[in-house]
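@channel sequence for tomorrow's demo:
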Amino acid sequence: MKSGYISDKQNRSRLIESELSSVKKIAYHYYGRIKNAVEIEDLLQIGFLGLVDASHRYVEAEQGSFKAYASIRIKGAIVDHLRKSSNLCRTTIARRKKVLTAEKILLDANGRLPSDLELSEYLNISIDELFDWRKAFQANQLQSLDDVHNEFSEWFADLSAPVEDHIYLDELKAGLRTSLDGLKPNEALVLQLYYVEELNVYEIAEVMEISTGRVSQLKSAAISFVREDLRKRNYI
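structure tokens (generated this afternoon):
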């Protein structure tokens, strides 16, 4: 019994040591997104605890490689910590709503999304203060970049792609910007709130004072327009 225990302990130690670099990589990945709201030492510690937990739970036959399993547990531990320690107070919620409302008003008035200067002047705050507000908002937007990577993995699959591919992607990005400029103001706002501000349809409906069904219609119409516009101009 004792010999088996020692063997298990040695195996866990080996697993932990094999993925210590993953803890650092993942911790700095999240730190880069919200560095103004958390200390890297905290993320490293939480990530290490996630790794230790993974070493105890891992069953090779059921969960594939330990590297992949440990990565999931490390990310989960860090995201859970960030959510629990989130400092999104009532003041920050109110400020975010003010910014979103101001963006909608200025969009309706000018037919385009406002610049930071226009937004700060409308809110009667300085540019620096607006940036501070956004840092507070960002601290609570915890959707992992890995979700984007997984959804659009073909865009990132080969970092050594031919020059022609890089040129095509640059042209596609330029074409996408042109297509977005052709959207109706309310369609552009929906995409802005959904993909940039990361609001869900219920939050968007509240900000725009429309139904969730209407939000879905605008989002679908905007995506369809962009896709068709890119197709007409032979980008896709």
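heads up for whoever presents: The chain has 14 helices and no strands.
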